[in-house]
Design goal:
By secondary structure, the protein is of the alpha/beta class. Helix content is about 40%, strand content about 15%. The chain is built from twelve helices and twelve strands. The strands form two sheets. Strands 5-12-11-10-9-8-1-6-7 form a nine-stranded mixed sheet, sandwiched between helices. A three-stranded mixed sheet has the order 3-2-4, with helices on one face. Helix 11 links the parallel strand 8 and strand 9. Helix 4 crosses helix 8. It is globular and about 65 Å long. It starts with a helix and ends with a strand.
Length: about 375
Amino acid sequence: MAADSAALAKHFSYFADHEVTSDPLYVALCRHVAARPDLLELMQHAPPTQRVPNLLLASVHDRVLAGVPHALREYFPSAGGTRPPDRDLPATFDDFIAAQREALCGLLAARSTQTNEIGRCAVLWPALCALARHTGHARLALFDFGSSAGLNLGVDGYCYDYGSFTLGDANSEVPPIDCHPVGDHAALRRAAAHMPQIVERIGVDPAPVDVHDDAQVRWLRACLWPYDRVRLARLDQAVKAARQRGLRVQRRDDCAAAIEPWLATLATDVQPVVFNSWVLHYFDKPARAAHVQHMRALVQRCGIAWLSAEGAHIPLADAPPAEGGDAAVSDEQLAKGSQWWLTLSREGAAPITTLLARSHPHGRWVQWLDRG
């Protein structure tokens, strides 16, 4: 237990120093939790793969957004609070934890981090365009593996602002998604020259979020940082659009097992695409290795395209060194960013995996690498 506590303390400290630096409330709370073994012990209620700082933060945030009457609410801009972190925050937080302990333990045990971040679509859309160019198929069927609420299924309905140019739906009601291109802007624009048509789309998830359920949508909001009003406004509009479009997300304990039955429903002139983003991170190493092997077999045997966007610690092939940063994004940030891998097979040959891009985990910047 002591070893677990020490590891969690380091995780919360790292989260404060590197992951939530733009949110002063979460920085203060992570540092407070890191110094308190009794608070770290709460994480034992979560499944081993979910013992991460953002699950505890989201659980607290959820109770605040649910309207629990407590002074901690005053610190959350997402709930109308205006009080900055101060010396009273630790005691206020401790009192909130004590009062809400049962509810928080229940959330930690039953919930998982569900950051259905449509900012990633600023990379997904040009990636789908590049896929259409690589395969010669403009008609795509999109299968979102581990899709949470399925908001990424609406990728063709959002507008993307890259500074000097825009892509996507200029008439979208969802606020434009800003994405800073690192390096060769022209390569990114060329990638989007072959705009596909998504003719079929479906999401699967072991614990999908129902966009028609207010409590479940609240959990999506709770997974955002309290100070990030831009992402909150974007999420609310994306949920509204998903409700209107009737995007489908199915519950599947084994998401991979749902792929082949789905393939059988598709027309022969449609290119199937299986997409995952920050999902494989939650697999243990043996399960992840087995999944990668299974997906490569499907690519070769069934002709699917596999598009995987995961952290740099889950490479699907040898990645070139990360370099070519700019004033906004350093080489170190590039090295730690998400890697977007496209795996294809030509007429049943051994699959070839290509690194299309590196990006911020939430799509705030992208370095486009594909020159094909």
